[in-house]
Amino acid sequence: MMRRFAVRTGIIAVSTALAAGMVQPASGTDAAGPADEAHVAAIEAGIDNPGFEDVTADGAIAGWFPLTSPACGTTVEPTTEDAHSGERSAKLTDPTAGGIVCLQSSFVDVLGGQDVRASAWMRTLSGTTAWLTIRFHDDAGALVGTADTRPGTLTEWTEQVVTAKAPMGATRMRVMLYGGSTTAGVSLIDDVTLTGPRDDYDPTLSGAHELFVDDYRIATRSPDVERVVHPPRRSAPTLTADKPWEANNYVYSNTVLYNPDLRKFQAWYGTFSLVDFHNYGLYAESVDGVRWTKPELGLHEYQGSTANNIYSTDAPGTVLYDPADPDPDRRYKMLAFKPNPRGYHAYTSPDGIHWTPNAANPVIPNGDVQNLGYDPYEQRYYAITKQPMPPNQQGAENRVQFISFSDDFVTFTDPVVSLEADVRDKAQATASGASDMQVYSLPSFAYEGIFIGLPAMYEVTGTGVPGSGGDGTIEVQVAASRDLDSGWNRPSRDPLIPRTAAGDRDDGMVMASSQAVIDDSTVRVFYTGWDGTHGTFDRRTTTSIATWRRDGFVSMSNAGDRPGLLTTMPVTVDGSSLHVNVAPSARQGGVRAELLDENAAVIPGYSLADSVRVRKDTLDGVLAWSGKRDLSALQGQEVRIRFEITGADLYSFWLR
Q1: What is the pLDDT of residue 292?
Q2: Percent of the chain with pLDDT over 90
Q3: Tens of pLDDT, residues 51-82
Q4: Could you give the CA distance from residue 194 to residue 106 in angstroms, rounded to a whole number?
Q5: Taking Cα atoms as reference points, which of 447, 439, 424 lies closest to residue 493?
Q6: Residues 6 or more apart in contact with residue 408 via CB below 8 angstroms
Q7: CB of 344 within 8 A of CB of 367?
Q8: Is 95 buried (19+), middle (13-18) or exposed (0-12) by CB count in 10 A?
Q9: List of residues 6+ apart from 89 with CB closer than 8 A
Q10: For the chain, what is the largest distance between any 2 Cα atoms, rounded to a whole number of angstroms?
């Protein structure tokens, strides 16, 4: 997938079957048993100790699980006699055709039908080279399929590859290096990977900050480096219900954005009044985002008066400010659900208050919650909507997010699935005592060459009061998409904006506004919190501000007990310096790095020993090697960056 940076100015972003062999059905269970939870990792994150550099106190290979037949003299051991990279490799010795020897990696999560790839650098010392195998397991640990390659004699280090499609029912997989019971030989193995396919990988960085919200740039990481989701700083409530038409205190902020032309914040939010059982779209504005005014618009009557801030008597819409539109009457754009005719309706406006409907309405069928965004890389609008889905296993509504695109904000493509809860979500819900997990809404915005999604994950716990559509809690997670067409990645399912403690204002549900306010040092998202769950009507709501440091949604973190390593996929050097956003958590913490060539060898002058550690908390730290920062000599080359993280959080990196 090529990264696109033909950005339209003006939109406010504040807002093969196998390399060898075949997939084989399997019976029985894995002799090594179920995975240790400490070794379960996301598919793109790689496996523990892939280069066999880490050795336990008793001399075994850390993070790997050997199975041997001692009576036959078989052994699995780390060795320093030769290595493809680093100091060590794994040595498998199977001296007789009757012996069995194998080495199994840690488990990695997988979904049935997912394409996967395993690779290893291998060399034959004698006899027959060990096989490289992917083994697929279900939740109970049963083996449900295998795929392998069986190399011939390899006199030099040679990369072996296996690709396969995970069988349906598979939830975990691992690499096995296997000396069969009918062969004998001594093999060396090094630099093992187990990942999803990377046929679309683009090494170009293009100056954008590379975040760790997904695994696109990650090749491997050691067990000492973990992905951490960072909840925001929360403000006190900023926008609250204080008008008669807000009397039921159900006030949800669809859109809050900063308009630089007006030098003020604008909010479009909504309520469903229990006084007259009617939806209202409401408008407010603020100079600082904290103190809000609700202007008397004079547009719609409420209880005999038009002295109110009601801009619509239908369900509230999601709004974009589009100053680059040549038509000043179309500078604001809105998508909203309207019941008659039922569907999602598009509107345009010169001021965000007086709206003109699209003649082609409804532009997207069906209706409920919606989010509207702009793709500056492909220069197109996109709408994320809810569409009918078959009921879930309990026979209840199944909430799934769909996406449609438009080049002109007049005609939209047919909606296709963008994000649906998966088996990991369902398992998480079950573990907490809920019956289901669903995606309630999907606000998103362009950020550093990708898209950040803030899915509202609805954990269904019951039916709720009549008319509520079910009961349960909602928390906001973080997702990433490289191009919007290929869906969303969520390596971590930890909440980005979690619910708060019982009795607090956000203890029932939290949902994010549709855009972000971004400056040089922070990212702010306005969000609505409820003090009750979905299936209740006596809940109160407030709008507050969630604030992160720039790039601060997710970090790759090391606790400081010992350094952790993270190695990137190949990246093209297109700048003269390497920058990092890092926050040390330990007194002597920080980040340093070394650069590797296409053979994974350290480039002279750019080793860890030469690297000067970035020790301070900084949004823009520059890596140096023996005082040298300039990477001009490497311009145009593809390198891998191996970060050493010690007692620190690494949020992003980039070349400039």
Answers
A1: 97
A2: 62
A3: 999 898 889 998 898 887 766 667 889 999 99
A4: 10
A5: 424
A6: none
A7: yes
A8: middle
A9: 51, 52, 78, 79, 82, 83, 188, 189, 190
A10: 94
DSSP 41: B
3-state helix vs strand vs coil in the chain, percent to 5? 5, 45, 50
Residue 49, token pair as written in the block: 């100790």
Query: CA angle, 100 as apex, 96 and 105 as ends, to 5°?
Result: 135
**Predicted local distance difference test score (pLDDT) of residue 72:** 61
* Confidence tier at 392 by pLDDT (50, 70, 90): low
Both tokens assigned to 466: 């009549």
pLDDT of 150 over the 60 cut: yes
CA distance 188 to 589: 35
| Model pLDDT for residues 204-243, shown as the tens digit of each residue | 988 899 999 998 898 778 878 999 999 999 999 999 989 9
Which amino acid is present at 418? S
* Chain length of the chain: 656
| CA-based R_g, the chain, Å | 27
Instruction: Tell me whether the omega of the peptide bond preceding residue 95 falls within 30 degrees of 0, making it cis.
Output: no
- CA distances, 422 to each of 432, 436, 457 (Å): 16, 10, 11
What distance, in Å, lies between the first and last C-alpha atoms of the chain?
Answer: 22
Asked if 388 and 366 count as a contact pair (C-beta separation under 8 A), the reply is: yes
Total-model pTM: 0.75
Confidence class of residue 24 from pLDDT cuts 50, 70 and 90?
A: very low
Residue type, 336: A
Place of tokens 């690494």: 650
Residue 511 host element (H or E): strand 509-512
Give me the percent of the chain exceeding a pLDDT of 70. 89
Calpha distance 621→628 (Å, rounded): 14
Which pLDDT value is given to residue 654?
Answer: 98
**For 566-609, what is the HEC assignment?**
EEECCEECCCCCEEEEEEECCCCCEEEEEEECCCCCECCCCCCC
